[in-house]
Structure formats: C-alpha cells, structure tokens
Design goal:
By secondary structure, this protein is α/β, with parallel strands linked by helices. Among the domains are: about 140 residues, no CATH class; about 60 residues, no CATH class; about 200 residues, no CATH class; about 210 residues, Rossmann fold, CATH 3.40.50.300. About 40% of the residues lie in helices and about 15% in strands. It contains 34 helices and 30 strands. The strands form seven sheets. It has a seven-stranded parallel β-sheet, sandwiched between helices.
Length: about 950
Amino acid sequence: MASHFYMSLSGVGQWKRALRDSGAQLAPYRHYLTTAKNAAEQRSPILSWRLPNLDEQQELERIRKASPSREKHAGKLPRRRERARNQSAQSGEWIILEPRQGFAEEPDATFEAFLDAKEIYQRPPYKNRGAVTWDLRSKIAIVDRDHERLAIKLAQLPTFIDKHPPPEHQVVEAEPLIFLKPNTWPLECQRRALESLENRPFPRLAPLLRLTSIQPTWDPLQPRHMDEDDWVFLRQDNDGSFRDGTHEQRQFVQCALQTPDFAMLEGPPGSGKTTAICELISQIARDGKRVLLVASTHVAVDNVLERLMDWQDHSDEKLVMPIRIGDESNVASPAIKPWVLGNLTRTWNAEILDYLDHPKDASAEGNAARVVLQSALGSKSHNESLTNMILETSNLVCGTTIGILQHPAIKVAGSGRKGEQNAASIEPFDFLIIDEASKTTFSEFLVPALFAKRWIIVGDKRQLSPYVDEQDLAENVQGLLTPAAADAALSTFLASDALPVRMRRNSLLVIESDEQARRLMEEAEARQVAIVNLDDLDPKQPCLEILCAQIVCAKSQTLALWEHRLPDDLCLGNGPVTHLPDWQAHRRARAEPSPPEPTSWAEEVAWRQVRAHELRSNPSEQRRYVQELQELIPRTLQSHERPGARRPRDLNDGTKQTLAAVLEEDLEQMRRVAMISILEILQNGAGSMGWRDETALTGGLPAPVLRQRLVSLSFQHRMHPDISAFPRQAFYSQAELLNDASGLHAARQWQYPRYARRAVWFDIAPGGKKTRTRLSGNRNLAEVNVLMTELGEFVAWAQHNPRPGKNPEAPWEVAVLSFYKAQEKELRARLQKASGQRGNTRNFSLGRDRVKITLCTSDRFQGHEADLVLLSFVKSGTVGFLNSPNRLNVALTRARYQLVLIGHRAWMASRHCKSEQLKQLATSPLYANDLGWE
C-alpha cells in the first residue's frame, strides 16, 4: 500500500529507495517515542498539596466573582443563557499545589500537567499482572483551576490523608500527596505522525520526505515582488526611512510567500521575529489562504495574535479571523480570551439561540423550523458541527505544540487508522508557522506539519533547546545493555580514575548470580579498579585487600558474615542490602555522610547526555561530559549483552566496528532524536546516525537550498546597548547578529539615577552562619536580600516617574529571575509579603500598581521582556548548569532599560571556578561593579 503513495511523490528520487530510506531514518524516532510512551505509563506525576490559608481563600473567591461575563451588546436584552452560565459556579474545595519534600527543583512541566488535567487521584497506581492500574474510586474531578496561584478546585477534598495537624504527642504522617495519570497523548500523536508520514505520505507532503532522501530535488525559490503600498506591519516611517532590519524582515516575508516547501527566519532576542510573523500572516490572509500558527509557549502564540488583533481593531482592513486552540485558563491576555475556540462556540451558539428566542422580521411560516433548530442546538452533534464550521471559516488557527493537539482534526488523526483516513479528507492549511522552533523537536514538528502544504520555521538556535525528560531518555538508554553489563560498567566507572577524586564512589554491592560477579571482576580488571569478592574468601582469615578495595561485593548471606570488617566509607551501590545494623551504626558514629541514592547506568548516561547537549556551543566544558560518556561504555562488552542491537558495520579501512563503537553510536543517535530541534536540523542536520549517505535530516539542507530559504535578522530593538554588548560578543559574534539598531540608545533613555551603567553586577558572597544568609541547596538568602533592596529602591522611584514611550500611564515592568526554583520560592515569599498578594505565585504589583513584577526562572522567561531585570545567580563554589551558553543568553537578553546581576562575581572570576564561560562573564568590563560608580 505504501508503494502507491511513494510512486506519486515528486523530488524524492527513485521511489523504492525513498521508501527504504525514510523507514530507516524515521525508525529511531519511532522507537524512542514508543519506549518513552511505555515508560511514561509506568510512572505518574506527584505533587504535595495543602489547603489555602485565609488570605489565599479570599483571593481565590474574589477573582472568581470578578471574572467578567461576556460583554452585553447595547440595545439587546440580557441573555438568559449568559446569566445562567455566569451564576453556575461549580462547588468544590480549593487546594494549593506544592513540590514534594526533597524536590525543590520540581520542573514547571509537573505543575502545568496538574493544572491542565481534568482529574487527579488520591492513591498511586498499582501493578495488576504487570499492568499499571488506577483505582477509579480514588479519582477526583478538577472543576476549576488558577494558574497564577498554583491552585486547583476539586469536587471533594482527598480523604485518604488527614490534612489536620496531629497533636504534639503524635507522630506526623507522611506529607499529603496527589497523583496524576500520565498524559501520553502528545507522545502517541508524535508516533502516529511519524507512522503516517512513512506509510501514507500524500503528494503535498513530498518535501517532508525529501529530508530523508539521498537524491532529493529541491525546487528553486523566487521571492515575491511587492509594492510599497502592499506592506502592513513593515512600512516606512513617516519620514520615508526604514527601521534597521526592516529589509531583512521583508526579504523573509517575500521568500516565505513563494516557497515551495520551507522558509526559515533566524533572529536573536528583540530582532523583530514577531513583527515579521504578523506581516506574513496578514499577507497570507490577503491571498485568501489559511495559516496554522504553533509555538512551544502560550506567550509566543498570544504575542502574535494580540499584535494582529490590535492592528486590525484600528484598521479598516479586516484580514484575519483567528481561533485560539487550548484551555482559556492558559491564556493570560483578556484581548485573546474571546478568540478561544470554546468561547467562540458558546458565543455563536448563544447568538443563534437568542435570535430564535426573539426573531426579528421573521415570518410565521418558519416557526416550525425554528422550533426544530432550537431543540437541536443543545445536542452534542450540533456543537461539533458548529465548532467545525467555525474552524473551516477561520483563516488563522493557533495554539501551542501541546494545545494544538486539541484541534478536532488532529484529535481525529491521532485516534487510529480510521481517524487518519478521516483526517485525510480535511482541507490542509496553506502554511504552518512554527515560532520558537529552537524548542521544537522533529517529531513534535511533524504533528501539525502533516496538516499543511508549506512550512515556515522561526526561532533562534542560540536560545533554549527542546525540553528533554531525563526519565524518558533513561528508559530508552536502559534497553541498550543487559542489567549485568550495565551494573558492572556503572560500578567500576564510579570507582575509577575517570572521575575526579571528589566524585568517586567506593561501593558495596550485593551479588545475585555468578554471572554478575564475573562481569564485575572483568570490568574492574579492565579499568584497574581494586575489587574484592567476599564470596571467594574465608571470613575467618585475615583480608588486608578489603581495606583498600574500591568495590566490595558478595551475596547477601556472605555480607552478614563480614559485617564487622566492612570499611565504613563504602556506599550502597545497587540498592538495599541485608540488614547490617552494626555497620550502619558505626557509620553514624563516625559521622559519615549519608550515601548518595543508588543510580542506574541508564540514569548516569542520560543526565550526562543532556548536559553535553546543553554545552554543545561550549566545547571546552562539554569535553568532560563527552569523555565520561565514553568511559561509561563497558570495556569488556560482549555481543549477547546488546539485545536486539544492530550489527557492526564494515569500515572504510576494511575492519568492522567494535561493539563499543556501535553502542556509542546508538547513544549519540538517541541524543539527536530527543534533543535536536527542527530549526537546527534544517540548518545543520541531526548527525549521520550511522548513515554513509548524507540527507537533509542528517546533514541539513544543501547549502544552495538553505541560502534561498534562510533569512537572518541582524539588528535588535529591545536592549539598551550596554545590555546587548556582552551577549553580542559572547554568543553572536561569529554570525554578526544582535547589532544595536540606530537610535536605540536614545530610545532607551530614562531618569532613574541609581545606576551609572545599564548593566551592573552586585558581587555578593554567600553569608556565614552569623548573618543567617548562608547558601543552602539552591537558595542564596544573601542574594535575596540584595535583590529585594534594589527592587524597593526602584519601586520608590517608579511611583512618581512615568514610563517613557507612547503610553506613560502604563506600569513599569520588572522581571525577578533566578536559575533555580528553590531561589524562586524564597523570592516568592518575600514578594508576597511586600505586595500583600499572599496567593500570587508569579505576578505581583507594587508602588500603587505602578510596578508590575513577574517572578520565574530564567528559562521560563524566554519570549518575555521587561524594563528592569533583576537576575540572581545563586551558585557559589559550584557551577551547576550556569555554564550553558543558551541558558545564559536567554537570561542576559530580557531587559530593555536596566539589567542588574546579583551573584558571587569574585568566585566566578577566580581560578576556583572551573567554567571558562562564567569566567568570561565575570571578568567582562561590560558589567559595572555594584552601582557602577567606577
């Protein structure tokens, strides 16, 4: 069947070869998603919870009462359906979501999963004949949610855990937890999209399969000619001049309108990517064509939509009829909420019903038909028909990469073979625009891409990469080795000189089989690690070797015999052992630090793969992780320890690949599948993945093809030149991007007198015990104190000084950022106290509402900007993940008028700091010391 599809494809070369090549190159993606989905089904997101305090409860109730009803039209009777809807708030109990104890850095994705869910569970799942089973009796419906306050309203409170504090004489029970059934729908949609592209590619999808072809034919691209009066957003200034970068933006639009397949826009922060997207959408709408707009974050989608609707509200030309796919609670802008699909459907349903209630100038002959229509309007099938009609009449449909999965056509396509056949009959969009494409993987891109004819990719590969779930990656890695081989490689690696002395771990291992013992001994010998197998020794005889052993192993019963002779510096390397009370008591008496939690080979590989990828633009610091990944490969690998692995291939010198080389290649392939964005693939490729023949998927688009389709924006219009200087030098110098637009220095003038320079650094060392501001985990109270002082100074000034620009009455915007969630929590408590907004978690107001403050991690703030940015580094003594160029780039490029860095600059600039990236930042003269009075 697939052969018939491939015969009709143009530009993919010989169809039989194209069929074979596409299957081989897409297989790693398909396998990764299948494994990730199966792994996700075995675990569930978990959060702690508490009841809201009085202030939080009152705020939640106030917000719900203040929720605006739909605007009443002048001269119309109040809609009874609106009144009913506004008054029918569902009853329930609010709870506040919190991270579990010991999980201060719980990712935002976990909270978002709970806030987007329809139900939670009071109990975790259990295994029933090997299958994960959820107790439906413990399910509780979510009837409302509040993203700002991290609150969900449940139909009833969880009852399995007593929320009331026990009397002092009683032992406190474990913290209250709630569980979420994992949402594997996005992974399943990606898997089905890959399967559909491989097995049933329609002719319009031929360019997508050219990415996997070794003999593709790419059509030439001739940009569209446009007259001066044709432009909407990219017009000349009143004096006939152009803003810097406008010609580049125009070039992109002209290319995108005429591309037969792909067009790409690359631009640094503040370069005008959103403006270019708005221009492109308006031109496509003028042509009578339809656009599907997708981005990884809500803010990116809503920025474009808000700009378009603001322009259209003030224009005689009404080009765009938008629809926003997704939950209304995820849409922050009030201007966008009316365009959410659910709201549009309800609005039009109410309009029709209101007309049927009070028909004007209607003849009596139509009464019977109106009664029939009125009775049908409340049915589910009618709502579906009305929704489909609205979608078909819209020329701009937009949503996030996750939210767009709620589009009816995409939901149908993901529901199985019949759904794919139904989806095939849906009219495709003329263009798909992917914004923030640096955060979108190839498989995520394919889900909406199958519903379009041409594909526009927008982003900045020097900003954040796709989010990778380390657990999904570890599950994929785990299947590459047998447990015995993996355990032997990990234990000997952790004890070897491949790691710095401070990171090495002498291990106590429980042996369950002779094969496991043999593999350990072989790996230890290959790595020159001192190992003692107590099963081979007489416990009654002296054993000096045990005193200097890096690994001690034995079966459980043997360990009990040797308990009083075991060194107390050993860590439990592979989980719990036979109860050894005397040995454990001896460790406690010696005040030995608690041993780290045992980890698996797959987990150790996975987190290093993520870090190595984060540092791909910082090769000197990436080298350590690459070397450690190589050291994690078993030295004595045997063929039977690679179940289902591909065979070693012949090399050019006539030899065969080693088993270790094949495993390294498989690990690299996994990294590329999970972490490389569609933006990077089209420019540079995902890497050979073992292929001898290069394709666009592995090596990027051919240079002549890429030159016709890629436009780079070289000017930035956001940051004062003092702020953009270091990022330009550190991250964009080779590409000659992030140049300051002319007039930007004047445009960013203000009268705030506290700093002499627009980019300053407060060098704050963590305090000692006496000052109670010491560094604890990922919290730094000394930096919190300085940040709040600087914020207070600015608020005091901002209350009496209007904001520059066209709207002086608008409040000042401040971003309070940190790289770590534990620090964010400390700052949140201080901001709640200062503002009196006890229930808020991200957005605060100070200075009689003259200052709006956003609090979040620097990663989450990508796509946002603020007048003043206060950035807390937290770390001192360790680098953490501050040395990621992409992460630093995002953090340092958010401010318009003023950037204030708060961190231990002296340590970062010293020889004790092992990161050259941080040293370059800390020693740069572009950041003034303290207040800048040098």
